[in-house]
Amino acid sequence: MPQLYKILTFVLAFTGCISIVISGEVNPLMYITGTGLLPGYYRFLKGMPQAPGWAIGGFSVLTLMVFLFDSLIISNDIFIGVAHLTITFQAIKSFDLKEPWDHLQVYFMSLLQLIIASELTHSIAFGVIFIFFLVALVTAIILAHFIKEGTILKVSIRKPVAYISALTLLITVVFFISAPRISGGIWGKGYKKSIRTVGFSEKVDFGSFGDVKLDPTVVMRVETAGDFQEPYYWRGMTLNYFDGISWKDTLKAKKWIYKTDDRFRIKPFQKGQAIFQRIFLEPMDTDVIFGLSEIAAVEAIGRILFMDDAGSLFLPVKKGKRFSYIAYSIDRMPAVTENKVIYLQLPPGIEKISELALDLAGNERKDIDKTLKIEKYLRENYAYSLSTSRPPEGISPMEYFLFSSKKGFCEHYSTAMVLMLRSVNIPARIVTGFQGGEINEYGGYIIVRQSNAHSWVEAVIDGAWRRFDPTPQIPSERQSATVLFLDMIRMKWNRYVVAFSASDQKEIVRIFSLPFRLPSMPDVRIRVSYGILYILMLVAAILLILLRIRKIQFRRYGFATAEYLRLRNVFRKRGAAITSSSTPAEVKREASCFNMDSKVEEFIRLYEEYRFGGRKMGKEDRVRYRSLIEEIKKQFR
Questions:
Q1: Which of 137, 253, 279, 315 is deepest in the core (most CB within 10 A)?
Q2: SS3 assignment, position 608
Q3: Cβ distance 293 to 332 under 8 Å?
Q4: In this structure, are 11 and 136 located in the same domain?
Q5: What is the C-alpha separation between 137 and 9, in angstroms, rounded?
Q6: Which residues does 68 contact at the CB level (< 8 Å), separation at least 6?
């Protein structure tokens, strides 16, 4: 067996295991069993004896027992357990490669691993591994065919590998584009570890102290269009109840929003009014839908969304994987429809904070003037800091921030402002989400990172909610050009592969069908011309592929075999009972029916000498060999 074929078997097994490992979901203990591939294939490549049957059988039974224990107890997930099982089985199989069928088992197991990995990760690295695996698999199958035919040393496999790999990739792309889109993954759950944030949370807690780390991890990427002025506030959810230590959301009642015409319609809006946002959300430990200002409509996979009384939107279940959707926002704050009393709640023991608020409000009569004065006071008299310390015994965290340390991060500022507004009878609430983002000029989209997590204030002014942000602005650190370029590549991968949707399929159909539409417009002849051009290009592409495949069909064999196949086709077309499995003796017998015994007998004698006798064919031999076929064909005319 050629050494290259053995190496390809190892490469495919190793690639399958690596595709599972890069997902980050594999238990590190599985790396130990996976290393068994190295000694197993070393022995295989060196031609050393394979392991005895009792050892292979014993380890296989043990592996199945470990799989049950892993699926039910350790991983507590059958899907992850199967991923672990395939790695171990690949290692065991490397010690038991005897028959050609064993190699097919390795190929099948590697393909299964790639299918599992496609559910565990959407990394662009998986795309590279998939293409490499596809080419390696095609090469191995072609090698196996030529080895079986006994012509591996007489033919070049580079062109067949190149053409068949290209055709396989083309078919894969066509299938990917045309396959129906379904919501969720194969198993209806995600396996990507969720991102947890400091600034955004479903609960703001002042019970812990220390240094807050700025994390550059990307939480979402946004393509946006429309007239919207910076800074960007990606609104998440609101918190209304404060107990002195932490904020909570007590608006538990949520109404269902059903999809109509491929869109969740929340509020009416004019087509030109809405701000378009295509959002690619990384796995997060929340079910909140983010968007600018007031979201009027959402396009997303699924049949239902939830909305609370504060206008926050939620998915039916928490997403453990990347999630993409389109949000249409209106550049205005919503009117107050809920009970304003719940936004006046104050915890006990904040008399000192209330006195400060009353002093700042002074003789101002309008709520807007009181609010702006409190916002300005917090911005100008306090320092932004990610380092906090525990307040002395008996002093609340907010009193310590306002009257002693005078430094803190966004939660301190927003909480202080809400408490002060409520103290002067202005309904207010905390909003958590993300603020700002870095524009990537390479892709023209906004990168929102974990460090952009933020909280701000919404207060009732003149019967409507209005946003205020008392936190001092701090300059953000810009990433290098290399980082932004690599992120653009990831964005394109997420946009056109991971998040490829039914709407994208419709857009492709629309583009290709555009020339065939015949509206009553002056350019109807141009459209028809483009339609004819498309048809001609399609026909030419199909003919080119068919011609190349037919050419490969004869070239994939040596010269002697290819000419022999031509001879069989000559007789088959004349009605001879010859099939693809007919032997040379059967071909001679059929030739006798056409009175061509002598020439056919000479041709087949030469074929058997060149094909099986190890005789090399010179130039003169080639000419004679081919002329015999031409003479046979002339006799039929």
A1: 279
A2: helix
A3: yes
A4: yes
A5: 9
A6: 81
Q: What is the dihedral of CA 323, 326, 330, 335, to 10 degrees?
A: -50
Clarify whether residues 113 and 242 are in a common domain. Answer: no
275 burial (CB, 10 Å; 0-12 / 13-18 / 19+) is buried
Shared domain check, 226 and 154: no
Residue entry with tokens 């199989």? 93
Do 235 and 334 fall within a single domain?
Answer: yes
- What total of structural domains would you count in the chain? 3
pTM flag (> 0.85): no
Cα–chain-centroid distance for residue 81?
22
Q: What is the DSSP secondary structure assignment for residue 341, as one 8-state letter?
A: G
How far is Cα 162 from Cα 492, in angstroms, rounded to an integer?
A: 26
Note whether residue 544 is domain-resident.
no
Other C-beta atoms within 10 Å of 195: how many? Answer: 19
Q: Report the distance separating Cα 301 and Cα 331, nearest Å.
A: 25
The range of the structural domain enclosing residue 418 comes to 204-482
* Same domain assignment for residues 284 and 433: yes
Query: What is the three-state SS of 158-223?
Result: HHHHHHHHHHHHHHHHHHHHHCCCCCCCCCCCCCCCCECCCCCCCCEECCCCCECCCCCCEEEEEE
Give the tokens for residue 474.
């701090």
Mean pLDDT, 10 residues at a time, the chain of 637 residues:
79 90 80 86 86 88 88 83 89 83 85 86 83 89 74 72 84 75 44 45 62 73 78 90 89 83 85 85 84 89 86 79 86 75 91 93 89 94 85 88 90 94 94 91 89 91 92 80 85 75 68 56 54 70 67 56 78 76 76 73 77 69 77 71
Output 298-302 pairs: Cβ under 8 A, ≥24 positions apart: 298/263, 298/264, 298/266, 298/325, 298/326, 298/327, 298/328, 299/262, 299/263, 299/264, 299/325, 299/326, 299/503, 300/264, 300/324, 300/325, 300/326, 301/181, 301/183, 301/184, 301/325, 301/501, 302/183, 302/259
Identity of the amino acid at 253: A
The residues facing 238 across adjacent strands are 431
Say yes or no: 230 and 150 in one domain. no
With residues binned 3-state (H G I as helix, E B as strand, rest as coil), the percentages for the chain, rounded to 5, are 50, 15, 35
User: At residue 316, what are phi and psi to the nearest 5 degrees?
Assistant: -60, -35
**Which of 143, 178, 213 is at the close of a domain?**
178
End position of a domain, from candidates 425, 457, 482:
482
Closest CA to 449 of 220, 122, 137: 220
Backbone torsions φ then ψ of 487, nearest 5 degrees: -65, -35
Tokens of 453: 């997590």
Cα–Cα distance between 219 and 194 in angstroms, integer?
Answer: 10
